[in-house]
Write a structure and sequence with these properties.
5-stranded mixed beta sheet; 32% helix; alpha+beta; 169 residues
């Protein structure tokens, strides 16, 4: 219930508070856990248990995570192996300490000719009437407002959405 309360808060995308990304991931997962179970989706968690603090809006971060999970859940209806892997880990780069959240699914991935359009508003790979094409565009904007990056990679034929955020000072 707390996860739903956190998510439903009407906050500004530009809100900048320190929060635990690991906690936001757990709250988002709790909101779609039953849906994954009902569809027979195996969830594999590889979460660093440390509380990595990032700056931004926890509720909007949960929105991004839920949109990525929702997209993964929907695409898995079409494949025999139904698996989502959520990976959270700290990494050091030339731009400082960062945290990387990867949401991977066992779906077929986005065809190469469509990948450049993924974060454009109103672009969707879903049939007409089944998606407005705004979730990835909105998610991209939210992550950018947190000085982060949202990217897509197709590895081993599967979808990997990666959220890369700077750790709070």
């Amino acid at each position: 219930m707390n996860a739903l309360r956190s998510f439903s808060q009407d906050d500004d995308v530009s809100e900048r508070d320190s929060f635990s990304l690991a906690d936001a991931v757990q709250k988002a997962l709790s909101l779609c856990d039953q849906r994954m179970k009902d569809r027979g989706i195996q969830l594999q968690l590889d979460l660093d248990t440390r509380s990595y603090q990032v700056m931004g809006s926890e509720a909007r971060s949960m929105e991004v995570i839920l949109m990525l999970l929702d997209n993964a859940i929907d695409i898995l209806d079409e494949v025999p192996e139904k698996k989502i892997v959520v990976h959270l880990k700290k990494r050091d780069s030339s731009s400082g300490s960062r945290v990387r959240l990867t949401i991977q699914d066992s779906g077929p991935g986005v065809p190469p000719d469509l990948q450049t359009h993924l974060f454009q508003p109103f672009f969707t790979t879903r049939p007409v009437g089944e998606g407005a094409g705004l979730s990835l565009s909105r998610s991209h904007g939210i992550v950018q407002s947190m000085q982060g990056e949202l990217s897509y990679e197709r590895r081993e034929g599967h979808t990997h959405f990666i959220i890369d955020l700077p750790l709070a000072a």
